[in-house]
Amino acid sequence: MPFERFVQSGRVAHVSHGPNKGKLVAIVDVIDQNRVLVDGPASKIPRGQMSLSNLHLTKFRLKFPFTGSTRVVRKAWAAEKIDEQWKATVWAQKVAAKEKRAALSDYDRFKLRRAKRVRNAIRTEAFYRLKKAAKKAKANKVAAKK
Fold first, then answer.
1. HSE value, Cβ hemisphere, 13 Å, CA-based, for 60
2. Helix, strand, or coil here: 12?
3. What are the boundaries of each domain within the chain?
4. H or E element that contains 134
């Protein structure tokens, strides 16, 4: 099947727009083709409707009864350890790195630029050293054949 993430009860989603941007919610029920009922017990988002255009579906899915209460969603969330699973994903790590970069001061950006320059100089030197050694080995191999 081409799709793996469906809009369904129990699906965990990442909020992409609005006042709760960046938080995780669980879809409790589907209202219509554009809106869903969400609940975010761990991220302190009260139960309410949210547009699907403001959500990005994750690979996580909670098992709880259809239209379960906030207490049921909270228990399922804790049982599945969604927060730990989310922090382990590449997606969450990229979001954290983006936030960290955005929080850098002018001096921090300067230090980062200098560190990258030093790193690139070391990398370039190592590359040319290996290239020279490979060229020398190839010349020796050609000379040995003659």
1. 24
2. strand
3. 11-103, 104-145
4. helix 106-145
The pTM (predicted TM-score) of the whole model is 0.75
Would you write out the chain's pLDDT as a tens digit for each of its 146 residues?
688 899 999 999 999 999 999 999 999 999 999 999 999 999 999 999 999 999 999 999 999 988 889 999 999 999 999 999 999 999 999 999 999 999 999 999 999 999 999 999 999 999 999 999 999 999 988 888 77
Cα–Cα distance measured from residue 37 to residue 47, given in angstroms and rounded to the nearest whole number: 7
Going by C-alpha positions, the residue among 45, 67, 52, 59 that lies closest to residue 11 is: 59
How much is the pLDDT for 110? 97
Would you state the CATH architecture of domain 11-103? Roll (2.30)
**Structural contact between residues 35 and 55, judged by C-beta atoms closer than 8 angstroms:** no
Contacts of 95 (CB under 8 A, 6+ apart): 22
DSSP class of residue 72 equals H
CA distances 8 to 5, 89, 93, 106, 111, Å, are: 9, 21, 25, 44, 46
**How is 31-69 classified by DSSP, letter by letter?**
-SSSEEEEEETTTTEEEEEEEGGGEEEEEEE----TT--
